[in-house]
Amino acid sequence: MSQKNNNRHNNQIIKKTRSLLIAGNWKMYKDHNEAYNLALTLKERLADISSIKVVICPSFTSLHTVSLALKGSSLLLGAQDVHWEKEGAFTGAISPLMLLLLGCRYVIIGHSERRNLFQETNKTINLKLKAVLKENLTPILCIGETLQEREKGNTELVIEDQLKGGLVDLPAEDVGKMVLAYEPVWAIGTGKTATPKQANDVHIFIRKKIEEKVGQEIAKNMSILYGGSVKPENAKDLLREPDIDGALVGGASLNEESFEKIVRSGIDLL
Ligand code: 13P
Predict the structure, then answer these.
(1) Which of 18, 103, 127, 159 has its CA 20 to 30 A from that of 205?
(2) Amino acid 12: pLDDT
(3) How confident is the model at residue 193 (pLDDT cuts 50, 70, 90)?
(4) 182 CA from centroid of ligand 1 (Å)
(5) What is the pLDDT of residue 15?
(6) 215 lines ligand 1 (CB under 6 A)
(7) Which domain holds residue 25?
(8) When comparing pLDDT for 119 and 10, which is higher?
(9) Is the pLDDT of residue 65 over 50?
(10) Would residue 3 count as lying in a domain?
């Protein structure tokens, strides 16, 4: 049996080569008080965690209270979106610097809900990536195919197009600072998870494309998260896969117990 298969099937021989990152995307849930309370609870429940990066991404209106709640903990703060301009007459928009000053370290960019419901394109995603990197924030770039695209056999084409368009003119050094998240649209909020093998196969493809663009060293070290109906029940099987370096969790991150279980299933693999 190959080493890769060994990793997949034998619980004893799992070794992650990259550090794990578990991020909670709270989407448009929790007002600033609820968010504060949940963040405080998570800070207490996850106080012993240092070997895994844990990132919490509440809505813009909760960034301040959550950053206060997380003070003194290793949990990190992230935003769910950003505008690419530094400042100006852009009603409703938030700049990378504003996020940085609120204590953010990460920004989710190009989530499928932004692409599909708010008409985001690879072009605007590319502008956002560049703007965020300029402020030394870490972008979590989301990519993934719809059910229709998968059924047509176009998963790789779609992923390749999203990577190509999103990463236009980004120097290798900057690509190396990013985190990627593979989120098959058909698995988001549907309860349908990609099987560990399905997800891992796409992660391998993504890594190969990154390698073609910026070389093996950067590709090898890049964190590629999986997102789409990650739950305590399936987290360990997904995280055990050699090319899955963490999870971007939606629904299950809104509950302290399930989010803690997901984080702890990662610890067991280290
Ligand atoms: P769910 O975990 O609710 O499927 O959401 C995934 C997601 O969109 C994370 O960004």
Answers:
(1) 127
(2) 42
(3) confident
(4) 11
(5) 63
(6) no
(7) 17-269
(8) 119
(9) yes
(10) no
Q: Decide: 183 in ligand 1 pocket, CB within 6 A.
A: yes
Q: How far is the CA of 247 from the centre of ligand 1 (A)?
A: 9
Ligand 1 atom at minimal distance to the Cα of residue 142: 10
Does the annotation count 183 as an active-site position?
yes
| Overall domain count for the chain | 1
- Return the CATH number at 32: 3.20.20.70
Q: Is residue 6 a part of any domain in this protein?
A: no
Q: What is the pTM of this model?
A: 0.94
Point out the ligand 1 atom lying closest to the alpha carbon of residue 252.
Answer: 2
Q: What pLDDT sits at residue 6? A: 41
Residue-by-residue DSSP string for the chain: --HHHHHHH-GGG---SS--EEEEE-TT---HHHHHHHHHHHHHHTTT--SSEEEEE--GGGHHHHHHHHTTSS-EEEES---SSSSSS-TT---HHHHHHTTEEEEEES-HHHHHHS---HHHHHHHHHHHHHTTPEEEEEE---HHHHHTT-HHHHHHHHHHHHTTT--HHHHTT-EEEE--GGGTTSS-PPPHHHHHHHHHHHHHHHHHHH-HHHHHH-EEEEESS--HHHHHHHHTSTT--EEEESGGGGSHHHHHHHHHHHHTT-
Residue 228 CB less than 6 A away from ligand 1: yes
- Alpha carbon nearest to ligand 1 atom 5, residue: 250
Q: What is the mean pLDDT of the chain?
A: 94
3-12, 130-139, 248-257: the lowest-pLDDT one: 3-12
Say how many Å lie between the CA of residue 2 and the centre of ligand 1: 32
Asked if residue 11 is part of any domain, the answer here is no
The whole-number average pLDDT for the span 226-248 is 97
Average pLDDT, stretch 125-144?
98
Question: Does residue 22 fall inside a structural domain?
Answer: yes
Residue from 145, 183, 203, 241 carrying the catalytic annotation: 183
188 lines ligand 1 (CB under 6 A): yes
